[in-house]
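Translate sequence into C-alpha cells.
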Amino acid sequence: MKRYSLAIHGGAGTILPSEMDAQKELNYTGALKEALAGGQEILASGGSSLDAVETAVRILEDCPLFNAGRGSVFNAAGKHEMEASIMDGATLAAGAVSGISLIKNPVSLARKVKDNSDFVYMSGLGAMDFAREQKVKLMDDAYFFDEYRHAQWLAVKDSSLARLDHSLLKEKKFGTVGAVAFDSQGNLAAATSTGGLTNKKYGRIGDSPIIGAGNYANNATCAVSCTGYGEYFIRGVVAYDVSALMEYKNLSLEEASRYVIKEKMVKLGGEGGLIAIDRQGKISIQFNSEGMYRAWVSADDDPVVKIFL
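Result follows.
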C-alpha cells in the first residue's frame, strides 16, 4: 500500500451548530468530501503532493460556499480580488499571487508562477499579464457573482468597515481554503487560497499568499496551511513558526502547531487555525475558534470530515 496523508480546510471561525441547518451542513460536508477525494485519488495512485494540494484547492475554489475562487467576497469597489500560494517541500520552491481578478483557479496561477517563472510572488496587473501569457482560465464577473456574498457587501459598502466572511453580525468566519499533503515519495506540499475580506480597500493583502505566514512546506519538518485574520498570521509568521519550532526546538508537529495556535496566537489576539502534516505523514489540525471546516485522510485511515469542535 502506498503511504500518503492529506488534510484540507475551508475556513475557521464562529461556526455554531445553532446557525447550521441540516441542508447547509450537508452542503459543506459534501464539498469537503469532494475536495478530499480529489486529492486522495492522486496520492493513492502514487501522484505528487503538489498535484494533490492543487487539485483539492481547485475543487474548493470552484465551490461558492467557500471564500476563494468562485465564492470570493466583494471588495470595496464591488469586485473580486483574490490571492493564493503553493509550496513544494522537496525544493522549497513556491509561487504566490495577489490582487488578481477573473482567474477561475488562483491556486493554479500560483503553481504557474512557481513552475514557469523566476519569481515567487506576483501581484495585480503584472500577475494578470502573466496569467494571460500562461493561458490560465479566466471567467467573467457573472461567474463570481453570488447573491449571499453580494448581500454581505451591501451591508457594509458605504462604511469604512472591512469584514471577515460572515453570515451574521455575531458570527465571524475566516473563509480561506487550503490543503497539505504527504505523498508516497515522502514529499510535502501546501496550498492556500482566499478571496480576502468583504469591503477591503487599498489593495489589502492577507496571509494566504505570503510564504511563511499563511502557507509553508519543507520536507525537513512539515507542510502548513493557515486560515484566520491575516494581519495576525502575518505578524506571527505562523506557518513558518510551526516549522521552526520543529527544526530548532525539536518539538513534534502536534506540540508545535498546538503551541502556535492555542498559545502564541491567543496572546497576540489572533483567531483562526491551521492544518499541517509532518515528514512522517502525521496530521495535526488546530484552531482557537468555535469551529473549522476541515477533513483529512491517510492510506491507513478512512476519511474524516468535521465542522464543529
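Note: The two ends are 32 Å apart (CA to CA).
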